[in-house]
Amino acid sequence: MKRTTQNWTLDTLKNELNRRKEVKGWIITQEHIHRRERYFMLDGGALITDQDREVRSQSISAKIFVGLPKAGRQGEISKKLFPALPLTPQLDSAIAAARQTDHQAWSLPGAIPKELPEVLTADARMAEDLEGVMTGLTRRMGAAVARRRPTTFSSAELFLSIHDHELHLSNGLVHRSSQSRIYSEAAYSFTRPGADGKPHSDEYLNTRWAVSLDDLPVEELFDETSDRAEHSLDVRKPETGRYPVIVDADVLAALFSSQLTQLSSMNAYHGLPFVKPGDELVPNASGDPLTITLDPSLPYGADTAALSEHGLIQTPFKLVDRNRVVATATDKRFADYLSAVPTTVRGSIVVDPGTLSYEELTRRAPKVLEILQFSGLFVDANSGTFSSEIRLARLFDNEKKSVTYLKGGSLSGSFRENFRGARLSNRPVKRAHFSSDAPTGDGYYGPDFALLTDVSVVG
User: Fold this and answer.
1) DSSP per position, 231-242
2) Is 171 in the same domain as 207?
3) For an engineered disulfide with 320, which of 287, 292, 337, 397 has Cβ 3.0 to 4.6 Å away?
4) Is 412 inside a domain boundary?
């Protein structure tokens, strides 16, 4: 990718912001990304590269605070800035937009941290040789595809990237960090004759994010995708009813992540659903008591960080202890609003495991439904409800000692209701997820499965 001509530097930007008397403070973030992308297909029974790309990009954004005539109020704006364009018009536009907003005043910390905690955020193998890692992973994917299977390999993708971040605050803080990210995707199809004598086919797609190579089980991903594709035709619709339901770590990560908003001072300030310290997270819980910690020190977590966006040191912070809420996540902004002490607000969600194995979870009731994949899970952070169509599931009928694969229908539930009697597995796993519209990732380290109770399923 051709680099754009840069008309100004970060120092120019900082000096210009400091020169403007109407600007009370600012947060500047810069990100450089080195990204490798490969798309794979099958040719002659072997994995080949269909597309191969290398991308280098840069982005700069600034959050600008300006004074307003009203006491105790300030204007704020977040603006993406383009180094290839003249700086002055961009700042003029941003400041004018900030003046049109009206927020309660708050300020960045007055002190700059001197000794920061050491955190592991970038896999050294990727940081030193991204091309070599791409070659090695491609070789492993080729070996996985070469295995004899009843299914047919459809496609795969592999994205590797190094994100170099800089954080500059108007209080003088400058912090640099780096993070590695890995995305892998595999798809297999399965074909067999139907009752009408015609071939019937279905495809199963599986994805996985990671920060470290050690957390990306390539072979397991391909094996699991092929196995589920093979069962995708041997299915029936679930019967309508209420079931004990097993969900995996990816679903748990999404459910716990949405629940964190109800443990934040942001919700408390805005009058949104909020669970205060001293209350039970799940009212009248009878299952495994939940203990939840926000851990920014987790090695190679999706949101492992030494500092918050506001320049405060981040350390492990327990929010829930055996189902009892013990603290509120509060950043500097809402700490000023509520006259509170700021706390850790970044980190992976760490959930203490339970005592049961996966096999024991499948035998906890006469019939247990396990969700293998949703079509797209929708979670409402304010109500705690969740729902989705069922892409693939299996029903353990422990009275008949049978396992039946299911597809179709929908599932819906509520965190506060369906976690009431939940049981957690005893094996912790790490999960990560990144999206293009969020500057940080979502991390999870906790039970690989949970058995939720009395979940509504419509066939």
Assistant:
1) HSSSEEPPPSEE
2) yes
3) 292
4) yes
The CA distance from 181 to 242, in Å, is 39
Torsion of CA 453, 456, 458, 459, to 10 degrees: 10
Domain co-membership, 101 together with 242: no
Provide the token pair at 371.
């969700």
Residue 1 lies inside a defined structural domain of this protein: no
Q: Does pTM surpass 0.90?
A: yes
209 is written with which tokens? Answer: 């994010």
- 300 found inside a domain: yes
Task: Single out the residue in 212, 231, 250 at which a domain terminates.
Answer: 231
Handedness of CA 350, 354, 359, 364 (dihedral sign): negative
For residue 144, give its domain range: 10-231
User: 98-153: per-residue pLDDT in tens?
Assistant: 999 999 999 999 999 989 999 999 999 999 999 999 999 999 999 999 999 999 99
Tell me how many degrees the CA angle 317-323-324 measures, rounded to the nearest 5. Answer: 70
Residues linked to residue 244 through DSSP beta bridges, in sequence order = none
Are residues 261 and 384 both part of a single domain?
A: yes
- Nearest by Cα to 288 from 450, 415, 445: 450
- Whole-angstrom distance, CA of residue 83 vs CA of residue 57: 12
| 201 shares its domain with 328 | no
Looking at residue 214, what is its pLDDT? Answer: 97
Q: Which two tokens stand for residue 98?
A: 């900030």
Structural domain count, the chain: 2
Which stretch of DSSP H or E encloses residue 404? strand 402-406
What digits encode the pLDDT tens for the residues 415-453? 999 999 999 999 999 999 999 878 899 999 999 999 999
Q: 130-146 vs 218-231: helix axis angle to the nearest 10?
A: 40
From 206, 231, 256, the end of a domain falls on 231
Pair 248, 179 in one domain: no
1 has pLDDT over 50: no
Q: What angle do CA 264, 268, 274 make, to 5 degrees?
A: 70
Residues 174 and 284 in one domain: no
| DSSP of 89-149 | HHHHHHHHHHHT--EE-----SS--SSPPP---S-HHHHH-HHHHHHHHHHHHHHHHHS--
Please, are residues 65 and 79 in contact by the beta-carbon 8 Å criterion?
A: no
The CATH number for 94's domain is: 3.30.2290.10
For residue 446, the cross-strand partners are 429
Q: Are 63 and 78 in contact (CB under 8 A)?
A: yes
- 113 and 36: one domain? yes
Q: Report which of 448, 451, 440, 444 is spatially closest to residue 253, judged by C-alpha positions.
A: 444
- Establish if 342 belongs to a structural domain: yes
Task: Say yes or no: 95 and 152 in one domain.
Answer: yes
